[in-house]
Amino acid sequence: MRTMAVIGTGLIGTSVALAATAQGVSVYLSDRNRAAARIAAALGAGRAEDPPVPVDLAVLAVPPSRIAEVLIEAQARGLARAYTDVASVKAGPERAVLARAPEPSRYVGGHPLAGRERSGPLAARAELFRGRPWALTPHRLTSRAALDRGLELAELCGAAPVVMRGREHDEVVALTSHVPHLLASVMAARLRDGPAGVPLLAGQGLRDVTRIAAGDPLLWSDILRSNAAAMAGVVKELRADLAQVAAALDVLAEDGDGDYGQGVRTLEDLLARGVAGLAGLPRPGAGPPVAEAGLRILVPDRPGELARLLGAVAALGIAVDDVAVEAAEESGLRVRVPVPTADAERIGAKLGADGWNRAPAESMPAG
Predict the structure, then answer these.
(1) Across the chain, what does the average pLDDT equal?
(2) What are the helix and strand counts (H, E) for the chain?
(3) Given this model, what pLDDT does residue 367 score?
(4) What's the pLDDT at 366?
(5) What is the DSSP string of 193-251?
(6) Which residues are bridge partners to 159 per DSSP?
């Protein structure tokens, strides 16, 4: 890819332009807010002008509700040979494109799973997408050439492309992105009416939960209403969970009245399900999950041996936070070291050469 146009120079559009420019692509920038385009150009993201000839790819970095209208206008003036977008909702824009765009075959939906709580071109970073998933959602008319351009863009930005259908994408991001943003905003909104001591005792946990609530309200309003159908089901399930928790807390607050034990079990069950839900997520920046095997290592019951194993594991590039002690036996500890299945034998042999013994197969739990 030699040339690109980016329409919309906010956080994502400017970050795409910066990443492409760093790879030698000539980028042309435009925005309804001419000052934003000029700022992006001043950052080195490209030139704030129209391209003299059609570019290889046009990236539509505008809210979901504007994708179709911007695409129609761009195709009418022959801006590019292929088109994609970076909006976080796909099914609605796709339907509008199929119904109204003059050349829908030249368009493939796209969504890089990356962002920051800040907005605007000054928040942009060329490395924003590095190692992150980048969803591509070809529709029934998308040409192979358009899909290839979308794949090339994701790889150029250092992201890991994931191809899926638009409706499936929207159902997934409703749970993984849109409802979490809504909940962060709900929690942050409660702070306005909180006790006077909130600023004095606000810790990192609160900041982690509410950080994304600082996003642009107008943009997020567009995103949430564009994916309302997929979000509604998730919110209803959360409402049911919260109703159970509220009932359990009422029982526990009564100090002995009611079924105190059931209230405790309700809370413990929710907390345990939360831990189990997190276990299926890849580590930040790790990209799509890979097949994983668990090496079981026997650690002698001597002071410092577990620390020595953790040091050996870290030296092999394995995250020690994921190492787990599965059992304490008379001879020592049985420790599970998670490794990619493809590397299990190599890493096992390396640990064996360093003097670590693997647990016998019959003592390994299933899974």
Answers:
(1) 88
(2) 14, 11
(3) 37
(4) 37
(5) GS-TTHHHH--HHHHHHHGGGGS-HHHHHHHHHHTHHHHHHHHHHHHHHHHHHHHHHHH
(6) none
**Nearest alpha-carbon partner for 52 in 103, 5, 1, 8:** 5
Asked if 29 contacts 8 with a C-beta cutoff of 8 angstroms, the reply is no
Task: Record the pTM.
Answer: 0.73
- Whether residue 286 is predicted with pLDDT greater than 60 in this model: the reply is no
d(CA 301, CA 32): 67
Nearest to 185 by CA among 237, 223, 133, 132: 223
For residue 151, CA distances in Å to 57, 68, 169, 216, 306 come to 11, 21, 16, 28, 44
When comparing pLDDT for 365 and 358, which is higher?
A: 358
* Closest to 125 measured CA to CA, from 112, 139, 141: 112
Comparing CA positions, the residue from 271, 292, 297 lying closest to residue 281 is 292
DSSP annotation of 159 reads: -
Mean pLDDT of 151-171: 95
- The residues, ordered by sequence, that sit 6+ positions from 2 with a Cβ below 8 Å of its Cβ are 25, 26, 56
Rounded Cα–Cα distance for residues 364 and 367 (Å): 9
Q: How far apart are CA 81 and CA 97, in angstroms?
A: 16
How far is residue 336's CA from residue 296's CA, in Å, rounded to a whole number? 5
What single-letter DSSP state applies at residue 52?
S
pLDDT tens digit string along 46-90?
999 999 999 999 999 999 999 999 999 999 999 999 999 999 999
Q: How confident is the model at residue 257 (pLDDT cuts 50, 70, 90)?
A: low
